[in-house]
Amino acid sequence: xxxxxxxxxxxxxxxxxxxxxxxxxxxxxxxxxxxxxxxxxxxxxxxxxxxxxxxxxxxxxxxxxxxxxxxxxxxxxxxxxxxxxxxxxxxxxxxxxxxxxxxxxxxxxxxxxxxxxxxxxxxxxxxxxxxxxxxxxxxxxxxxxxxxxxxxxxxxxxxxxxxxxxxxxxxxxxxxxxxxxxxxxxxxxxxxxxxxxxxxxxxxxxxxxxxxxxxxxxxxxxxxx
Length: 225
Known about the structure:
Elements: H1 2-10, H2 35-60, H3 62-70, H4 75-78, H5 83-96, E1 98-100, E2 103-104, H6 107-126, H7 135-140, H8 148-159, H9 165-177, H10 187-198, H11 206-215
Antiparallel strand pairs: 1-2
Helix pairs in contact: 3-5, 5-6, 9-10
């Protein structure tokens, strides 16, 4: 608060409480004794409560804790997990996911796959080889035939977003693309333009685009040389 006061004094802005009214209900109208207390009650405490609520909803919910338990499937963690961690993983998988229509995850089958998966990476670590550090590389090294359930679980872990930045970026892109002048744009064209805008850093070969366009159907002009 004191830093804000100094900054406002440098800018010749008076630090004061907004006009209070006895019957005001549309904005902060707290009965306080000084300016600092007013901004503490009106701004700081609501902001702090909002942050705490976001943290609780993101990390303390039971479902989120279970998803964090599934991250133990990554080889860098699974080589050192205990039987209690095995139990957490099986409980999370059986409670959260249903893969085959209405058939839930088989705990015995999952336990067997976990034992094989842990033994494999313990052997690799003992031999001095490098083990996988993330979900993507773990998914590439997880055989879907030998570890069918584990492969699905690791695929889910790899798809979990770290933040909502990608989704927000997509919304911003669509807001720029879907204008009133493009109100009749189809879904396929909109998706293509959005992907081009979002992934603008990727290099696209013009020759590959022409060849793909030419091979989609027979055309009057021979594009492929």
